[in-house]
Amino acid sequence: MLATVVSLRLYLHLVHVRHIYPGGYLVHQLFAGVLIQIPAAFLVAFGTRHRVLVRVALGVATGLMLDEVVYLVATKASDTDYVSRGSLVGSILLVSLTVIFLLILYALHRDEN
After folding, report:
1. pLDDT of 59-87, one tens digit each?
2. Which structural domain, as residue segments, surrounds residue 36?
């Protein structure tokens, strides 16, 4: 998750914002994250032999979605907003809160396995 967000932010700040318009519709990385997250969540729910791959997929998808949420909710959603300080700080804050929450859940449930 962290590697995904860092990679996205580096790409956006170094290469600049590039949009994808399949069929004339703007596709945000949030949608890509959802398309990865839903099948991965079903694999977790029903069990799979590929547990590491599923965990990686969940981390990547979560990073894609969390990075986009602040941009869509807290800004006017322009290209300059995406690389703005507010979007970056919001993304760092949201990802940090998520990591803290995951660490707490892990600490509470690590003895159950």
Report:
1. 999 999 999 998 888 888 788 888 888 88
2. 2-112
Of the candidates 67, 107, 106, the residue with the CA atom closest to the CA atom of residue 87: 67
CA–CA distance, 44 with 50 (Å, rounded to integer): 10
CA dihedral defined by 43, 54, 32, 18, rounded to 10 degrees? -170
Q: What's this model's pTM, rounded to 2 decimal places?
A: 0.84
Classify 17 as helix, strand or coil: coil
Question: Beta strands of 42-109 (E only): which ranges?
Answer: none
In whole angstroms, what is the distance from residue 46 CA to residue 40 CA? 10
| 108, 84 Cβ separation under 8 angstroms | no
What is the number of structural domains in the chain? 1
Q: Give 20's strand partners.
A: 27
Sign of CA dihedral 58, 104, 6, 64: positive
